[in-house]
Amino acid sequence: MVVYTARVYTGTYQFSETLDRIYLTLVGTKGTSPETPLVKWGPNFYIGAVSEYPITCSQDLGDISLIQITKKYILTQDSWYCNFVKVTSPQGKTYNFPVYQWIESSNTMEFREGKGKTPSLEALPPLQDHRKKELEERQESYKWKEYAPGMPHCLDVNSVLDLDTNSQFSSTKGTLFFTRAIVIAVEQRLKGFSTSETSWKSLDNIKNIFSFHRKDRIEYVINHWKEDAFFGYQFLNGLNPTVIQKCTKIPPNFSVTQDMVASSLGRGTTLAEELTKGNIYIADYQILDGITNNKPQQYIAAPLCLLHLTPEEELMPLAIQLSQTPGPETPIFLPSDSEWDWILAKTWVRNSHFHVHQAVAHLLRTHLLAEVIALATLRHFPICHPLFKLLIPHIRYTFKINTLARETLINKGGVFDLATGLGHDGLVQLCQRGLQALTYSSLCLPEDLEERDVSSLPNYYYRDDGLEIWAAVESFVSSIVDFYYSKDESVQEDYELQGWIQEIFAEGFLSQESSGIPSSFGTVMELKKFLTMVIFTVSAQHAAVNNGQYGHGAWMPNFPSSMRKPPPRSKGTTHLENYLETLPNINATCQIIGTLFLLSSPSGDSIALGDYPNELFTEEEPQQFIQDFQDCLNRISKKIEKRNSSLPISYHYLNPPEIENSVAI
Fold this sequence. Notes:
Lipoxygenase-1
């Protein structure tokens, strides 16, 4: 007789404990243990419990490669969250079995020993069969569906109620999230905002929306939103810092002239000279041109905005054209125009920025791509695969938040349908255009910055911080990949990896070869680049376009979701009264601001970039790579905090402790 020792770790989430009966079976290279009930005096599986149990066998089982956990209910079924199982042989050898999931109902689940292997390195046929069975079950549970033609495909569920327990919010996050939503709704109803469809009577009245949720950044925006310098600053460090690009030649459809901008450029400075010097930049919202919207009294513009980098290193707007088609009824708005003409023109640009930010930069390029990555990861990588261990922390809560969005935000009759100029149909159309235009290089920060030719722009903190984080992620990913893939052939022969990227290409990018997204991997370097892009996108890039939504958008004139009057066809017609009549009404304003507050507030149980609390990697080397990654991020954080301490308005969206590991909100 030989006796093994099993140490079982119950999770620390609320309701992790179970009263059900748990059985454990060990599967080794020389035999299988009896199914053994895990019982002892006192409670066995309370929250955070670590308990040891003897597993008695008639013979030595050899190397333990698999465990089977069987759960049988006694009176009523409940769920049990198991973190980990460690098995120690009579000879003192320890085997690690990461679990980290909810075990529900009365069934048997199998878990592999923790040392990661690619399928080409799998030695034993029974283990090969096990990983294939695991993926078959996952692919049956996690299926694709089309949300709308021309958009990335998503998880095939109709409601958050259809999600499995492992995809749900924790009780901490769920309680905080839904409590906030209720508090916001009650506050707006008590103030009479949620039922009012009238215009704001004054700009000061807008401040009443967030009287209980005021932040320093909101105060700064309220005090500076009219200023040209702050308008330009937001292209660099605002909610969508990827629109601006260098302009070396004025587009033929932008009818701006030297005479128009002479006073803004200063005496002795010409537009042609500044173009040659590289001091002219442009924000072009051509993607909005012709977007349809069937809602009454809602209008969409596709402006062009020219900006000038001054000798004082401020990015200042030079000229704004509110249409892609120049002509007598498309005036060029200038800083020298009347106060409200110029403010209205900038507000139209900010409205266009809202649409492109929400539909393309935020929804499409982070949330929807994150879901594609998450679904492909679960369908193609078994738990034992090293890339499953690398990616699983980066898909936490993504199914839940995206399903909630499809139920309440981007659906017909949802918040964005009711309170934005795009409406549901316009949002879908803009996402479709965004996917058609999306390229692999635009998702890779160093290449995107080079293509937009913005490397020399001063005070571009998104670029500076983003490049440091990109490099840190790239170094971490390279270490992990090199540890498990010794040569290019290892990548080519990993059929699970090849199935993963093929499905991402087909289901996420709809097999568009023009995107440049790979459909297979031939080299280790190709794999490293793609994984770096994935982790950066779902963590840092999402933080950059999400975390400042309330801070920059709570003051609605700075980030209006809709415009209720068409773009002006002449100058000299704007004053404060019709400016207020153009902005969103009270109800729409409150719906959007409440949503921005909800989506950009700390979630209560967030896990920061670089934190891997679940011990999925059991080898010493990957654990050291994680520690090195965390040390690098800590150095970046200290550098950012030192810089921010001397800025009038800090840029902290890419401060590593504020970057969540996944698209979770």
